[in-house]
Amino acid sequence: MVVLIASEGGAGRIENLLAAEGYHTLAYDPEGGMPLIDQSQAWLLVLHVGFNTNLGLKRLRQFKSAYPDVPVIFLTEFHSVDVVLAVFRAGARDYFSVPLDEAGFKESVCALIRCRKAEAAGNSMPFLAASETHPVYAGMAGAVASAIPSGIRRVVNSLEGNFAKETSLESMSEKAGVSKYHFCRMFKKYTGLSPMHYLARVRVERAKELLQSTSSSISTVAAEVGFNDLSSFIKHFKRVAGCTPRTFKKFSGAVSAGNKKSGEISQNLRLF
Q1: Which own/partner contact pairs does 177-184 have at CB distance under 8 Å and 24+ positions apart?
Q2: How much is the average pLDDT of 146-159?
Q3: Which domains does the chain have, with CATH numbers?
């Protein structure tokens, strides 16, 4: 049995990682379509799409339609909670952002292959639906799924409830009850973001609410949500909202004046 690797940028690094673990691999270009395989001979598919997440999601859906029993690990260089949601809803079993967490990636590969071997041996270990094994976010303020380890859940809840306070990786890992390295790896596995990027996104989402609903200045809003540096606030805001805070506030005021729904703002400004 083999591990399939679909990679638009070359699969050499992934092949080397898996070869070091003793796995046989078959690499192909996702733009060229899927190879004809007997799905009983495939351990899993590693789908690496770089920044082209739209093509990646299309190939993921095509693959799952043709080979529903073969689990998929999705790799991308585009960091977005929305992409994580779309990936799991399309049927992927796990998600990793690039640069790759090699230890976490190999751990995921091993776990999925153990399940495949158990199935092949007649010991049924059916894969659960994606919504049962990974959190499905309705937005950054939503509660996390019970499948997340309790320590990670405590940190997420703390970040969402106390986002304006100063924090550190050390304090977060202590709250989670694990080492800093293990905490960072697990947090990214279950949220798709590093702890600090997650915190920044929560702060930006709150800032968007304040910019829409108050007349506070941009610097005041930045300080209120926990950014002590205005340039850092603008950088993170642009990454999440797709525009500067000033543009967002201006557009928000225009929409309000026109009696449009506030949800229209996010829809028009988001990059993804």
Answers
A1: 177/151, 178/151, 183/151, 183/152, 183/155
A2: 78
A3: 2-131 (3.40.50.2300), 136-196 (1.10.10), 203-269 (1.10.10)
